Amino acid sequence: MSDLTSKLKTVWIQLSGHSYPIYIGIDIVPILAEELIRLGWKGKIGIITDTHVARYYLSLCEEQVKKVSPQGYVVHVLPPGEEYKTLQQIEEICTTMLQGGLDRSSGIVALGGGVVGDVAGYFSASYMRGIPFIQVPTTIVSQVDASIGGKTGVNHPLGKNILGAFHQPHSVIIDLNLLATLPERIYREGFSEIIKHGIIADEGLFEYCRDNAELLIQKDLNCLLYPVIRSCEIKADIVMKDEKEQNIRAYLNYGHTFGHAFEAVTQYKTFLHGEAVALGMITAAEVAVQMGFVSEDVPQRHREVLAKYGLPIHWSVLPVDEVMQSMKRDKKAKAGKLRFILPRRIGEVSIDSNVPEDFVRQALEKIKSPSN
Length: 372
Known about the structure:
Low-confidence stretches: none
Radius of gyration: 20 Å
Order of helices and strands: EEHEHEHEHEHEEEHHHHHHHHHEEH
CATH topology of the largest domain: Dehydroquinate synthase-like, alpha domain
Largest sheet: 7 strands, mixed
Number of helices: 15
Oligomer: single chain
Shape: globular
CATH architecture of the largest domain: Up-down Bundle
Number of strands: 11
Number of domains: 2
Strand content: 15-25%
Structural class: alpha/beta
């Protein structure tokens, strides 16, 4: 490894059939060339990105690929946005890559946020029954969550990530410099996933986000390193214990059962993913109050820290019945019953399948009230 080693932190995910590094640092994109050499891909390389990211970072990525890919590379640029996370886009990528000459000795570089990573990962899992891929995430949501752990997929009009596969990346390169050009709203939404990691596993991380909100919002990258690294460590630890989400990996879905429903009933056009998750975490905390697991202090602490990042803490026009129907179609439902991830305190959650529907409705009604 080059002198970049001194600039980065490496978190390893060790699985029974596959292990890979997560590199985290500032100005470390040049490590991509070294990773391609280490992985020894023989065929053409495909780069999948979107129009926003391509404008700023595609040439930087191409520069590294050119150094080490004698067969050349092929680029596919997606339209930006969750509404393009569809099977149609998978088919269009497939056309590009077939025409460009990618074969079973090829690999994919996913350069972008969570949508690009999910789409590129699902394409990689499907193309010629599976080719390897590298994640180069460019948003906080994708850096601390979506790029790690091998969940890939696309949406269906009736539900989020209904079509997907577990397909682990071969490495993840998290360069905080790639956050520099993010619009403020997209930058801020990522903190919902970092805060989530604090709620499910580390109260200290939760409090760090509360106490350092001003510096973090200002994109102080040195301040940001700790919560990104800690989030990756928490997710890696859970994934290594439960790769296929048979048990505790479901903890990572905290706020997501509600959040995915909020996204689906608004056709993915009202909320960014992190915004929907922020509302979903508050809703889950309110369910925990109904269940008697926590006091009202817990959802209130959620609201206080999420509000510091400008994330939504209520939705006055929430369509309760539509959300309930959407959740019942959620892929996390088993035998018709939803599993909810609920807090027992900040830093600990549990899985609960016996939540009365009335409690869920009451929690949703509390989210509708701007007074909360």
